[in-house]
Amino acid sequence: MISGSCCCGAIRFELLAPPTMMGACHCSRCRKLGSSVFVFVRAADFRWIEGREKVARYAPTAPFTYARCFCGDCGTALGEVDSDQDSFPIAANCLDDDPVVRIRFHEFVADKPLWYEICDDAKQFPGHPVRAAEVPPNPSLGAYTP
Ligand SMILES: [Zn+2]
Ligand SMILES: [Zn+2]
Q: 31: CA distance to ligand 2 center in Å?
């Protein structure tokens, strides 16, 4: 069991199984929202404990396709916790326990600010990695535009 929560504690959820993978996105949207490191979870493994009604949503405008969820009280970035997909990304920053998975790739590295230095050996992609063979197929990533 892996717990997740926002900074103020109003929102709490748990994962019944470890996420399927972890990645880091260096695009400006993820950076500004404080959700650069994310994990993909299966909807079947994601369970709300409390605070679902506190979730605020920043809807995407074209060409972006991903809505951004955060706590309406404290602003903690949550990722796509309101997704209706079978698998969706949530922000790793709101996890309270070790998700077991580690960063497997860095995407949109071309947009990375100079002050952030990547200090691991995970694969790096200048943009989105969906066409690269190194990253396992994930239907949720197919339509991904940060
Ligand atoms: Zn909160
Ligand atoms: Zn991003």
A: 7
**pLDDT band at residue 67 under the 50/70/90 scheme:** confident
105-145 per-position pLDDT tens digit: 999 999 999 999 999 999 999 998 875 544 454 544 444 55
Ligand with an atom nearest the CA of residue 77:
1
How remote is the CA of residue 63 from the centroid of ligand 2, in Å?
A: 13
Helix boundaries (H) for the chain = 28-33, 139-142
Banded pLDDT at 12 (limits 50, 70, 90): very high
Q: With 0-12 CB in 10 A as exposed, 13-18 as middle and 19+ as buried, what is 95?
A: buried
DSSP state of 9: S
Strands (E), the chain: 2-5, 12-15, 21-25, 37-42, 46-50, 55-58, 68-71, 77-79, 87-91, 103-107, 123-124
Pick the CATH number of 2-136 from 3.40.228.10, 2.170.150.70, 3.30.70.100, 1.20.1260.10: 2.170.150.70
